[in-house]
User: Fold this.
Amino acid sequence: MLRGLILAALVATGVAAAAPRTVVGHSVKGRAIVAYERGDPSAPATLVVGVIHGNETAGLAVIRRLRTMPLPPGVHLWLVPEANPDGVAANTRQNAHGVDLNRNWPVAWKHNGVPWDGYYSGPRPMSEPENRAMRDFILRIKPALTIWYHQPLDEVYGSDPHVAVLKRYARLTGLRYQRVPAPPGAATRWERKHFPAGPHFVVEFRAGKISAATAIRHAWAVLALAQSLPKPTFHATSRPIALVTVESENRLLAVDATTGHVVRWWTLPADPENVEAYAGEAAAVSTQTGAVTLINTDTLKVIRVIHGLGSPHIAAFAPQGDYVYVTDDARGQLDVILHRVVRRIFVGYGAHHMAFSPDQRRLWVVLGERARSISLVDTHVIDRPRLIGHVDPHGLAHDAAFTPDGRYLWVTYDDRSTLTVFNARTRRPVATLPAGTAPAHVRFDDASGLARYGRYAYVTSGNDGVLRVYDWRTHKLVRTMPTAPGSFNLAVDRGLVATSSLTAGTLTLFRGSHRLFGERVAPVTRDVALVP
Assistant:
């Protein structure tokens, strides 16, 4: 029956078109990691990865079939032949650093072995460029279904809640299903955390090459699962959205970033001031009640509310996306959250704005809105940060952000109309740039590595009602754009820029140099975060 249904769909669809090629990132040795997109972009995305262990290449035969065979309607494929091209070239399980890429993901990561051991997990989670590239790619396409091909166990395995889907794949392909938990640091464990609504699992072929008939049978199974995925909900198709805090009403708003319409709102613990979003999750900080509300940004549902903080102000997600750091200015501490507070350290009274280095090894914490000192925190072990020193900001610092390459830190002030660029290694100033009437805020568009957007720095002066756009590499001012008065806070994602007005309640959206809209969505809007 499966064969008949799919063959009928293939005939109806006609001859397959060539799949567009996207470079996801590069390996240790500079080889391109590529992805091919096929099918209906409005359908839920299915990701298929042919190889993550370089000496387990049977999945490439399935990828080749999926790249060329006509597709039935309602299928959207993303095909990554090789997530480990260096390993494929060398016929090694590991990448060129000797790391097992399927033990290097940040969920449940454990240090294991030494380089070139069979299961060496790497020096730290997400240490490898291949995994960082795949993480950013997955966060961008948000797959509803992912299949990772391996060898040589000859089975389908996983223990996630979507067991029926895994068993169906096993029936369609003639493999056995095994209820086996994914190992620590596995890609599927990370995906299940960030995209729990869909199945993400492993298919193991037997050792050696697979026959053409086997490859076709597995390709048919992929299409059958992809075609049966639930259609996206309204919230999934109305991306991007802006999350906006309204402290005067104790609310968080979800605003459609294409129309300016409020599509959902939540009542939060009193005094929700700041919000941050990343990797499928958002954190809204309620200062007066000492609470942090965690929200799943894919389902737009509250995950949990964490109480017991003192006077929390700013949230920042670690670059690897699992932990949330929250500054508590009254207690002078940093709270590390993974579903609950797992660690607290003292960093200095007034702890406020934070800046993570892109490699997640350092955190700069500005000690106050008019700070005479910035704390330097070692975040190499993300759940055990350590205070290692202080930096003189050469003025009353207000906000800070790392450049996407991690080499420099831009610091804004409360006592002057300029910002200072610091060398992150030497901690010394290297440049001064106009920022407008203080206090100013700064953000960079790292754009998941997309060079089209990642060259820009954005600086707001709420008292001037001006957004300045810099080329951060050259320090040249690219353009200025008017915002609503009182627009201090901002959020940036792949060329989309949002500012929120504390005095006018106006949310303003820009795409590049084009102003999309400026809508009054509440009496006052404190902070904004973007969900792409």
